[in-house]
Amino acid sequence: MAEDLTNAALPAEHPLRTGMRDAPLLRAAAGRPGPRPVWFMRQAGRSLPEYRRIREGVPMLRACFDADLVAEITLQPVRRHGVDAAILFSDIVVPLRAVGIDLDIEPGVGPVVAEPVRTARDIERIAALDLASVAAVEQGVRNVVASSPVPLIGFAGAPFTLASYLIEGGPSRNHDRTKALMHAEPELWHELASRLAAISERFLRMQVLAGASAIQLFDSWAGALSLADYRRFVLPHSAAVFASLTDLGVPRIHFGVGTGELLGAMAEPPVEVVGVDYRVGLPDAALRVGPDRALQGNLDPALLGAGDQVLRAEVERIVAEGDALPGHIFNLGHGVLPQTDPDVLTRVVQWVHELRP
Amino acid sequence: MAEDLTNAALPAEHPLRTGMRDAPLLRAAAGRPGPRPVWFMRQAGRSLPEYRRIREGVPMLRACFDADLVAEITLQPVRRHGVDAAILFSDIVVPLRAVGIDLDIEPGVGPVVAEPVRTARDIERIAALDLASVAAVEQGVRNVVASSPVPLIGFAGAPFTLASYLIEGGPSRNHDRTKALMHAEPELWHELASRLAAISERFLRMQVLAGASAIQLFDSWAGALSLADYRRFVLPHSAAVFASLTDLGVPRIHFGVGTGELLGAMAEPPVEVVGVDYRVGLPDAALRVGPDRALQGNLDPALLGAGDQVLRAEVERIVAEGDALPGHIFNLGHGVLPQTDPDVLTRVVQWVHELRP
Question: Which of A175, A279, A302 sits opposite B179 (nearest CB)?
């Protein structure tokens, strides 16, 4: 496939053209006043009994390529919690699988790559994303959008985080092979990161054209890098992904974990929202990010298990800090932990809604 | 045992009284001019073939309670690399095992606790450290000191990192049970952390009295905490450990990983040196830590696999940044990775020594 999407505009029936533009998520992302939106990373997932039921016997990647399951799982937390956004049920490795990389998601481990990518030849074999190979995901997006009362957030993995999985062969604590490749063979690194950026760009564009009203780029492992390495090896590729979506006019969220040192750099690409984990307070994050960006975050997901009194105080603190920002999307600082009581999540949504300014 | 060590002074034959005080490590820690010292966290360990040979068939904890093995393994990297400090071969859970907690160190996993500590009753059962139960470690220290040409650094785990292992039952990515306990049951948390602080205090004091010339407190997981949580739940207990050692007059090193947001707080207890991982540059770390502390770090251990050219440039950068500090101890930002080529470590030592100002 070689269709050129670069100048495609949003179709007339896109939610952003049919009234969704004033949804709280989109107002906050644009810095327009309005009720504070709340959603949770990994809201669609193992914390929900209805999710565990529907996934029974269905491997993760099979579920991600089943349009009906994608839509149902995406909508489960919207129905249950009343969150202000849906986020597509998928995984950052879905487009990598779609381009033919032999990988799987092993329960309790994460993505495991059969043949790690480490040489020029390995990298050359990474093809561009053929949209036909993610047709089921596209249909899933359309199914969600057809019935979701709230905006859908599309997402993709950032080039560094994807590259780390491919180079290390799976989840890694130290990312040492990835860092060694960056430094020792920078041309190879940049070739790999460019290819991954192109895959993420196309995957995100597809989601937006199919009806997603915002996108989030997950650079979950970026916090493992020094600022110097991040700027030199990673930021240009993530920036290219964001820049490629500018014509679509959807809010773009840039998220990572443990990125306190990187927040300023992560706000440099054309993004409307920067995600903040729980290690940095929102006022401090705002200073690093600059005055014209909305922030998303930043409740420590571990505190969802600390009891209502502690949790309520923390929610109130974050809401108060968010009031001083140009825009604030309430979220966790990282994903919902599997053992989280879903009723607690529902209560947090209620509290945030009650505390609306 | 109930001997009161609080006012014990260093014995006359202690290395600090017999000439070791002018060793580069001790000069740098005290901010006195001199050649720059270099050592590596986890220098005694799996990167060395002589270590793998001597550990063959010997479980980790058995090795830690064998005075001859402790001494031999501690000295291996001193002989091979010519580093400027030995660090005791041990593990932060050694004193926990010594007080009777049923735990083991599983290869490839880390410490695993048979019955996680989560209730008041669990916590009450944690006894004080009887020095007789670590007599083998004490003898190991004495054996090292009898023949080491460089100062020995004793160490212990900080209360938070120890508590996380006990509460979670093993290594944890999110420390969610630990955080939940802190917030939901602060009295229990403080009781647990106090007991662990007392154990670490006594374990460190024993090492110093047996001949260690410096100590390092490892709070490896502190970077998982927000600054507010760190200040409220952790810092007072770590500070108590450091304060308890003041009368001994040995340099104290405070180390954690991913602690960029915490560096200022980590410099508040009476410590002479703050460890810096590779995510923050030394000049920036110095601003956070304040003007009167030496810094230790901060080479990214992943770069040990990136080739000599990259590595040499990085070593030169760190040495140049270190020149501007009141004192600088060259080290990694985290421990040596097991797959590291030991010859590379030896070269780094040579480079740092050549680059001495």
Answer: A302
CATH of the domain at B55: 3.20.20.210
CA B262, CA B288: separation in Å to the nearest integer? 9
Record the pTM. Answer: 0.94
Q: Tell me how far CA of residue A289 lies from CA of A34, A241, A265, B184, in angstroms.
A: 22, 19, 8, 32
Q: Minimal Cα distance from B183: which residue of A?
A: A306
* Containing structural domain, residue B295: 5-354
Q: Is there a contact between A226 and B300 (Cβ–Cβ < 8 Å)?
A: yes
CB count within 10 Å of CB B240 equals 17
Catalytic residues of A: 42, 46, 55, 91, 165
Question: Residues A223, A225, A228, A234: is their CA dihedral positive or negative?
Answer: negative
Contacts of B296 (CB under 8 A, 6+ apart): B253, B255, B273, B274, B275, B276, B328, B329, B330, B331
Q: Please tell me the distance from the alpha carbon of residue B268 to that of residue B266, in angstroms, as a whole number.
A: 6
Residue range A250-303, pLDDT digits in tens: 999 999 999 999 999 999 999 999 999 999 999 999 999 998 899 999 999 999
Both structure tokens of B41: 């966290």
Tell me: the pLDDT tens digits for B14-47? 999 988 999 999 999 999 999 999 999 999 999 9
Q: Which class for A261: exposed (0-12), middle (13-18), buried (19 or more C-beta within 10 A)?
A: buried
Residues of A in contact with B258 (CB under 8 A): 223, 258
The dihedral of CA B42, B44, B48, B51: what is its sign? Answer: negative
Residue A17: count other Cβ atoms within 10 Å of its Cβ.
Answer: 12
B309's CB contacts (< 8 A; 6+ apart) are none
H or E segment to which residue B191 belongs = helix B186-209
Q: Which amino acid is at A342?
A: P
Q: Decide: residue B4, CB within 10 A, 0-12 exposed, 13-18 middle, 19+ buried.
A: exposed
Strand partners, A207: none
Q: How distant is the alpha carbon of residue A258 from its chain centre?
A: 15
As given in the structure block, the two tokens for residue B133 are 């139960």
In angstroms, the CA A345 to CA B310 distance is: 47
Neighboring chain A residues of B302 at a CB cutoff of 8 Å: 174-176, 178-180
Tally of domains within chain A: 1
Alpha-carbon B62 to chain mean position: 20
What is the DSSP secondary structure assignment for residue A213, as one 8-state letter? S
Name residue B152's amino acid. L
SS3 A123: helix
